[in-house]
Amino acid sequence: MVPLVFILLAVASGPAAARRHAPDLREDEPARRTTRPAECQFGKQAKELGSTWFADLGPPFGVMYCIKCECIPVQKKRRVVAKVHCRNIKNECPEPSCDTPVLLPGRCCKTCPGDTNSPDIVQEDSPTVVMAQEEEEVSMKHFGALLTGRSPLCIRRDDMTGVPVAAGVATARFTFRRRHLYWSVLLGPSMVSRPRALAFLDRGGRMLLEHPLKKAQGIHATYEEKTDKLCGVWRRVPREYKRFLREGSLYVALIWGDERNNSMDTALSGRISRYPALSSEMFTSLLEPEHAPLSIGNGACDDYRVPGQEEGWWGGTAVVTGAAGAAPSLHLAIVFNGVFKLGSREQAIKVTLTLPEKNQTIIDEMQKMSKPSYEFNIIEVSTPVSAAELRSLARGRLVLSVEAMGTPERRLSGVVRQRAACEVFHAPLMAERLAATTIPEGLALIYIDKEGSLVYDIQVDNLSIPDPKITLVDEQGKRHSQVEILDTRMGVLARPSARIFPPLYEDQLAVHIGSDTGPPLLRGRLLSRSLPDAAGAGPALLKRTDVRLPLTTPIAGLAWVSVDALCGINYEVFINGYNGGWSSWLESHALGSTGPRALTGSEGSVLEPSPAELAALHAGAAYLNVRASDNGTEFLRTRLPQISVPPSCLPAVPYAVDNELSANYPPTHVNVPPDNSLSNTASCFYAGRSYEDGAQWMATESCHMCGCVHGALRCDPVRCPPVECASPTIQPPGQCCPICT
């Protein structure tokens, strides 16, 4: 029998090809450490830091209730990594309190009635399950950071030497959503080179995660180029690190160096803090010194600050909110440092907002600050403005300045531009009234670029009029008002009205498509979506496929699918107009495909995609369909656009894919029964045949023993027993192992 320790090691580490992005139990090569997530890998399951579970070895062993595993943090030089630790708890069982203890199902220790203290009770963790907790969602939003040379954190290399502080200023925004921390970064104009990585650290300087800032092809690269932002996401943040975020003890750092060896030449960091004003942010300003420091020193951060000197870059960021309507106004929340005299106790701060091209001053206000802080100061300013000034604000023409009286040489200034968050706005477009023949459908995608222009892409299908009128409508309140007209289905609106932004950022701006008269034929309300670092090719329109569904209400949908740097497939599916339950499925038409994969929930990740699925996505031969939960009927379907899969994630041997399939290619699953009953979704597909869950068979052509385990296909090579023959051995046709003659 195989030793249990060997089995546990095989499950916990697994072959490298099984999950290219899994953190192995062994220490990675230095070049791979930066991609290690803050979680453990046990078999095909991701486990959160601090979680405990019983070892599930799968058939034929099952769950080993006397083997307790936990995911523990381990410090490797300057980094914190996750490790799986398993131990036998049989000897830890307490002495039963009665003469006739019993062994209950799912337990390791015999217990008596009333016994509660036992080591075989664990808190099972399932980090892949999406938890909809509204209270936590609200409490984990609106975080920001100001990255300057005044951060108290010292970034260290693997040999624990300090990294010099980079010149310049940056600001970041963070939103926590469904266990993922989305981030966006604005670099100051003085920063001419792009950092190689973004890192999260605790207050002690331990690196919790280092995220390479490599440009992902597709809409992500286009968006970063058009907006001058850095965008990304930290997926599945452990609970312990969420606590750091809430307590204000989580830091973010930008790292410059050589990508080839992950060197750390310079770094710039800042504390992540809660900014309440971010709940209504519409515009952002990044403030840099008007007179840059002549020298900031090139020494390690340990020696960076010399008592009595104020070397290094200082800076600030402003959260700007503009209210349109009958009485337009502005509100500014400004976070800054470094403008004060050394050792000052009470300072007068001057805030000015100007329109340089007209030599016009909009704000000129003085405020007193009693106890200036070295690292973090905040002031707020509000003022009424005119509609023309609001238009200038929306078009990026205003300049904000902050200075302390008596130190004009330390003045901060910066242009007010669109808000720093990395986001796009999308909408499935749904028919407003049912047509006699084909029903129109479509989607809309827009974002704001660095010039304040509105970039839009409208896709429509089955529209009966050749030249439709496309309008943006403010749907706040009972009265809907048209704010813009789009001339084409794809383009750039160079000077959008300032009235667009309040409803846009409050999810109250809609796209209407129709004729010049009458109600719209298509309509959809634009919703904000954070843009992570692997956004694929943009949204795909889900088209109606099943004519058997009653046409009582129109249906519209779209899907986002991408492959991240860790080889995981991330998806989001949005459906409007369908009131029943539904499920989404991913189909990959490639040799070696095991059939459609059920996607859990409307949003999630496939941590363990098959090589065939990745190859199909890369070739543009993958489909996503939506089925009704009650009868399994498919009613929406799309062929996913070609997605750029990282080369390290693709199989070494190319998979043959059918790249000429039409959008109506029949699904590979078993046909829907005539009575519309729900078919078995836990089956496996192999060599053109369907196998029920739990079935095992021999694949003689490849000499593999295969099994269907919870709908997942598992094949292992056949291990032949040693044969000792006096005469030469033979291998009969159709058999995998040699025998004696």
UniProtKB/TrEMBL annotation:
Q: Which InterPro entries match?
A: Chordin-like_regulators (IPR052278), CHRD (IPR010895), VWF_dom (IPR001007)
- The UniProt record lists the VWFC domain at 682-741
Q: What is this protein called?
A: Dorsal-ventral patterning protein Sog
Organism (species): Leptosia nina
List keywords of the entry alphabetically. Developmental protein, Signal
Q: Signal: is it a keyword of this entry?
A: yes
Q: Name one GO biological process term.
A: negative regulation of BMP signaling pathway
Q: Name one GO cellular component term.
A: extracellular space
Q: Does the keyword Lyase apply?
A: no
Q: One MF term in GO for this entry?
A: BMP binding
State the signal peptide span.
1-18
Residue ranges constituting the CHRD domain according to the UniProt record = 139-277, 279-421
Pfam families xref list: VWC (PF00093)
